[in-house]
């Protein structure tokens, strides 16, 4: 997952943000559910404590980490530990977790079939091209008994050892996987992107990760900023009873609190 230098140039827009101070928290997040949770619940809680929360929306998984590394964001909220670990390794960044908030079960969706039993020889499978989500997708397909893979921490289609249906795997940016439903037989879609695309995971997914999914989404900061008072205040607010109740009420099982 090597990031081209061009990606850094795209951070010019981030540099237009108002500068942070001791009572202002600038956080980057993907739209659903992360930004919704921040705007509707966390922001009012922090306001009562004298903090101003400024939420910046991102539609990818690269720029918010780069902006956090560069100091243009105080924190971000969109990713799990496997992705964070792989990103740091590939990009020489120093992003660390502070608060584990929720799990978004990975799901399998289709406009062409109603059950994985209907998969035919040569059908096309759309998956994310980042190491963490690719691994989740392949593990879910293996758990369903459709393929077998090597026993590795991170997996790509190259690590498939048995593929009796000769499924064709197409890798793409995570944000693009909902669009693949028009062409692929099935697509593995992160719940934040599924919700943003109008899908109802509990109803629409052919297969969904269980509540035992290890992929908790974290608030993350640049290493060394974990103990800043405003980050401690952010963590306390996002791990509140109000946030837990909001997640359960709004997403009805499609997003599961981790605390």
- Taken from the alpha-carbon principal axes, the silhouette is globular
Distance between the termini: 31 Å
Strand content of the residues, in percent? 15-25%
Strand order of the main beta sheet, please? 2-1-3-12-4-13
Q: Say how many strands there are.
A: 13
Largest sheet: 6 strands, mixed
Structural class: alpha/beta
Average pLDDT over all residues: 92
Note the run of SSEs as H and E.
HEHEHEHEEEHEEEEHHEEHHE
Descriptive overview:
InterPro entries: Lipoprotein_NlpA. Belongs to the NlpA lipoprotein family. The chain is 33% helix and 23% strand. It has nine helices and 13 strands. Strands 2-1-3-12-4-13 form a six-stranded mixed beta sheet, sandwiched between helices. A five-stranded mixed beta sheet has the order 9-6-10-5-11. A two-stranded antiparallel sheet has the order 7-8. Strand 1, helix 2 and strand 2 form a beta-alpha-beta unit. Helix 2 packs across helix 8 and helix 2 packs antiparallel against helix 9. The chain is globular, with a radius of gyration of 19 Å. The two termini are 31 Å apart. The N terminus is likely disordered.
Short description:
The chain is of the alpha/beta class and 259 residues long. The chain contains nine helices and 13 strands. It starts with a helix and ends with a strand.
Q: Could you outline the blueprint of secondary structure elements for this entry?
A:
Blueprint: H1 5-9, E1 24-29, H2 31-48, E2 52-57, H3 63-70, E3 75-79, H4 81-91, E4 95-103, E5 107-109, E6 124-128, H5 131-143, E7 148-149, E8 160-162, E9 168-172, E10 186-189, H6 191-196, H7 201-204, E11 207-208, E12 216-222, H8 229-238, H9 241-251, E13 256-257
Parallel strand pairs: 1-2, 1-3, 6-9, 6-10
Antiparallel strand pairs: 3-12, 4-12, 4-13, 5-10, 5-11, 7-8
Helix pairs in contact: 2-8, 2-9
């Amino acid at each position: 997952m090597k990031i081209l230098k061009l990606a850094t140039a795209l951070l010019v827009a981030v540099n237009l943000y108002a500068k942070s101070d001791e009572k202002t928290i600038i956080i980057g997040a993907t739209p659903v559910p992360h930004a919704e949770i921040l705007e509707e619940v966390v922001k009012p809680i922090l306001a009562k404590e004298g903090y101003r929360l400024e939420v910046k929306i991102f539609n990818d998984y690269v720029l918010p980490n780069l902006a956090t590394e560069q100091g243009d964001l105080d924190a971000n909220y969109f990713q799990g530990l496997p992705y964070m670990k792989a990103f740091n390794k590939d990009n020489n960044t120093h992003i660390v977790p502070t608060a584990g908030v929720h799990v978004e079960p990975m799901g399998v969706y289709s406009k062409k079939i109603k059950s994985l039993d209907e998969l035919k020889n040569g059908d096309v499978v759309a998956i994310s091209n980042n190491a963490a989500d690719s691994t989740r997708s392949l593990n879910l397909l293996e758990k369903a008994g459709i393929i077998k893979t090597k026993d590795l921490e991170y997996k790509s289609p190259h690590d498939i050892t048995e593929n009796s249906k000769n499924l064709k795997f197409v890798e793409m940016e995570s944000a693009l996987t909902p669009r693949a439903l028009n062409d692929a037989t099935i697509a593995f879609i992160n719940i934040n992107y599924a919700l943003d695309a109008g899908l109802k995971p509990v109803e629409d997914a052919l297969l969904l990760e269980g509540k035992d999914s290890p992929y908790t989404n974290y608030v993350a900061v640049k290493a060394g900023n974990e103990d800043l008072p405003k980050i401690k205040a952010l963590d306390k607010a996002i791990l509140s009873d109000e946030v837990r109740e909001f997640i359960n009420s709004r997403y009805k099982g499609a997003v599961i609190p981790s605390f």
